[in-house]
DNA sequence: AGAAGGACCAGTGGTCCGTA
DNA sequence: AGAAGGACCAGTGGTCCGTA
């Protein structure tokens, strides 16, 4: 795994080096009952998340070692409070970067985005180890439980809507890194924004599905890093729609409905 | 499949021959948009469910062909109503029967019980075919959606709590039919009730799990007819508890924790 | 008493839309 | 404007407990 080299790719400010602490926590998965608790406590040591509250209240010492759920959990929700309202910092937005390129300014690059998927996978593996240890039912996918676990372990920069949003981009990265890289370079050169790049990622994935009999679930499941992600609804719909079109036109030209195995 | 011979095993009264109509509906799975609707309508022909309302109201003609969801759906919920309360008939309770034995009186036998699991599998396959046809996400398990589908198709005698209740019994039947049959004979002979038989089904399944490295999920998944059922919580817990005990005692006697591959 | 199943509930997958 | 993510919602897995 080249995972750790990527830590450096996340940028200064909020999103700088938000990784790292889950590595201790991972352990061997051989612990006992209190593994969850151990995890959360264990994260404290090398923590480097920052919450940089910009608001009036809570300017106190939260930079280095603020991992106690009790301490910051209790007072965080000041939205409904009467007096001081603290603004919660978000992650820096993504920009289209080339492979290996570090995003500059208050931005995050796409290598960092993909790295978040790898982190989720590591959190899933931990959740699985704990579940097996306890004889509980064991998730195969990145579920709500895994996102909750990630948050508890201090990875506040990971959240479900974000991860779901870019799954098909990660899929392309997994399934055909060359095409993925080429697309990134092209969109960076053209100065496109992340939304445009994201949209463009659908087409090559659908093309891959076309070559493999249109079974996007099978394609996800066959890939060890991709199999833990739910197939995005829109990707599924695009595959289905495209298959219908292809089937219709190939039936006109006389090709069979399943001519993805040509000879 | 010997499925159809079993239809005869369901008894007179409520639970007599409640099967059969889903066979037409199954079709080739090659239909289009309206397959769901077709199903429900198609079920009408050979329907033989009876709802035998015993209450004061609704003694009308409901015996032969009352499959319109509109007709009986609207007026069924009279519990909250002021005037007439109609009592809804339940399925006959199960009794412990030998393999091949037809239950007598207002009872259902265990072959019939296991047959319900096969029916659920057929309903699942139909749901899967429809989902694939439509390019929607496709369940691998008997989900709420499948139970809803079964009900729509007229199989009112199938419901989630019942099916979940006896999963481990069906598991034993799938995994070691000889042991399952022997247990049935023994419990019938002793005049035990269904509850006692059901309880007794746990132990042999746990024993099978012990021989195969305690992974009850893997055991379920490896079996084509069992893999579509969620592992029951209690069975999972029993396997886990038993493994812990075994591991503890074998570590005392010097055996390794994974001595299920002896040589 | 033993048993069938309606109906409830906590937590899920999915993603909108108020926020920055 | 483009984008991140809190928070909501319909439908899920799980099974209790009022019913017969």
UniProtKB/TrEMBL annotation, chains A, B:
Its main location: nucleus. Keywords: Activator, Developmental protein, DNA-binding, Nucleus, Transcription, Transcription regulation. Residues 45-57 have a biased composition (Basic residues). One of its GO terms (biological process) is regulation of DNA-templated transcription. Residues 62-79 have a biased composition (Acidic residues). It is found in: Nucleus. GO terms for cellular component: nucleus. It comes from the Eukaryota. GO terms for molecular function: DNA binding. Probable transcription factor. Belongs to the FLO/LFY family. This is Floricaula/leafy-like transcription factor. It comes from Penstemon smallii.
